Amino acid sequence: MDSRLLFPAITVAIVVAFLKAAAAGKGEMNMVFYMHDNVIGNNVTAITVAGANGVSSPPGRFGTIVVISDVITKSPQLTETDSENIVGRAHGMYVNTNLVTGLDFLMVFTLIFHNTEYNGSTLEFQGTDRFDHPQREYAVVGGTGKFRFARGYAVVTTESLSGKNSVLKLNTTFRTP
């Protein structure tokens, strides 16, 4: 190749690589969700499946495993006829991992989107919920559909607490390729 063409060719290759890298950053998204975890009441969404006392173990006891199918909404309030507010469901589990206080939970769940432009897509969450801390973080470790290969984090706060039931706010930031 002529040496006079080598410099422009290398320059073009560098510019193309830079533009691809810059375009990858455009995949960043921020979404805020509310996760309604109901351990007691009429609309139970979280059930103990194992623990030191079997299925009668309370979630606040070390080693207890709770399986969830929590409703995910756009706002913290939820009513029976609030289908526009519902984003999807969180399917997964949490395990009590704190032998002393019982207030740390390993959270592993999939947010499955329904009734939105992301219908059928998912985000995968994993992390420790130190429930006695005002702010916690979960990792976004993957996704499917429109969120394939998602990576990021969710800043989690307790929006409300009523007995054993809670509403968690997930301020979620993630990137997709």
Taking all Cα atoms into account, the compactness measure Rg is 21 Å
Mean pLDDT reading: 87
Give the structural class: mainly beta
Q: Report helical residue fraction.
A: 10-25%
Number of helices: 1
Strand order of the largest sheet: 1-3-4-5-6-7-8-9
Low-confidence stretches: 11-25
How many strands in all?
A: 9
The fraction of residues assigned to DSSP E strands is over 45%
The largest sheet, given as strand count, sense and whether it forms a barrel, is: 8 strands, antiparallel, barrel
Straight-line distance between termini = 35 Å
Q: Can you write the helix and strand succession as a string?
A: HEEEEEEEEE
Apparent shape: globular
What is the gist of this entry?
By secondary structure, this protein is mostly beta strands. The chain has one helix spanning 3-24; strands at 28-37, 46-50, 65-73, 86-96, 104-113, 122-130, 136-144, 151-162, 165-175.
Report what the structure shows.
The chain is mainly beta. Strand 8 and strand 9 form a beta hairpin. The two termini are 35 Å apart. About 8% of the residues have low confidence.
Write the layout of secondary structure elements.
Layout: H1 3-24, E1 28-37, E2 46-50, E3 65-73, E4 86-96, E5 104-113, E6 122-130, E7 136-144, E8 151-162, E9 165-175
Antiparallel strand pairs: 1-3, 1-9, 2-3, 3-4, 4-5, 5-6, 6-7, 7-8, 8-9
